[in-house]
Amino acid sequence: MKIRGRDVKPNIYIFFIVTAAVWGLIMSFLVPVGQTPDENSHFSFMLEACGTNKLYPEDRDEFYKSSGLISVASERADFNTEAYFRDGMKKYSYGLLDLKVHISPSIIKFLPGALGFHLGLLFRLPMLICHQLAELTALIYYILICTIALKKMPFKKEVLMFVMLMPMAIQQAGSINPDVMVNTSAFLMTAMILDFKVRDKKVGWKDLIILMILALILFICKMIYIPLCLGILIVPADKFRLPIGRKFELQSFVRKYKIVVALLIVAAAAAGLYLFRGNETVKVLLATLSHPIKFMMLIKVTLGMLKDFYLQTMVGCFGWLDTFVPYTFIVFFMVFMLYISIMTSGEDIERARVLNIKNRIYLIFLVILIFMLIMCSMTIWSFKLSGYDLSADLSQYRGYLMNTGFIQGVQGRYFIPILPILLVSLFEGNEYNSRKIYRGAQIAFYLISMIYTLNLIKLRYWG
Fold this sequence. Notes:
Elements: E1 2-3, E2 6-7, H1 12-30, H2 39-50, H3 55-67, H4 69-75, H5 81-88, H6 111-122, H7 127-152, H8 157-164, H9 167-173, H10 179-198, H11 205-222, E3 243-244, E4 248-249, H12 250-256, H13 258-275, H14 280-290, H15 292-315, E5 317-318, E6 323-324, H16 327-342, E7 343-344, H17 346-352, H18 357-377, H19 379-385, H20 394-402, H21 419-426, E8 430-431, H22 435-462
Parallel strand pairs: 7-8
Antiparallel strand pairs: 1-2, 3-4, 5-6
């Protein structure tokens, strides 16, 4: 398309915003409240974090029972749509002003949804409307931060957009869960680190503070993704400008005494493990470090048993973990993922070459490390299901580990935050022959994916 002799490129940002908004909104309304994976539990956690959990037992349980939402989850039965809308339009017994709000730091996990829900509660709106407001504000936050990340991404924007628009990611974006905060923070952190690597402008305190805020969010929500911030080590030291006062330059100090700084970081990490030694995740981590062979065998057995489940729950598993996309769609999805990762513009290839082999190997190492931490952290769930006492000491945790047959509780969506950095590291790219075909293929893929997944959810819940 040409206007006054110059090329006008389709705007990838507008395309993302429109696609994510339409897909996310329809999916949010089609999936009944509490039916998104783990949403029911996350809703109660959100209320506890706000100190408004008095609402949960009085009203929500009755709403669930009357509309059949509990039986839908456990028996795959059709829920009572008439009761769903009728009882959903009832108001909570308490308004926001009737409750003593005590906000805890864990509210960060559910912040966008919590704002929408409690806004509805403040105006005494019906239960269903309060819930939809929570999902709406979560979706708005997801689209906003993802758009910023897309603009920050220096190359392979289409790859980042592909992950952002994965069916599973879109479903979680319009629901109440920590995934909204985790995914957006991970996507923006990935884009910023790659931007630091490519751009000519110096990395200053403002950039670093934003990165630290994202790291703090990841720490509060799911600390296992913290190693992602170590990707900043691929950025050359001379790209930083971190003055303290008029004479002292932090980056010069770090470059001059890098061995000392490295030792201090290791010491800080060791001190952190010691201070949080009573934490369940830390105890599991220490137990796996003391028995690495056993842990690796657990991962091997688990992947052998659950690899298909991981793949399905990463691509698309809707409702109460019972509505999977079929393998034909997964093959379609994987083929396009390979296509969008390999094919790119000539300009993108030049920028991508800034990542040398060492950088790529290092980033892949971080992905593997986070994968191991995901498996390690969910070993706790295996302990819970086995009835083990989680307040036990480290020696007992080692015993639990040795008696565990495989790791339970991991879902494929836990791998979404690290997928962009993995794809960017694996594929430098080849220049496409036709921009029209390249963009046309993307439009067709997202259109087919949207129609197919929405129809799948419609058949599951609305007959």
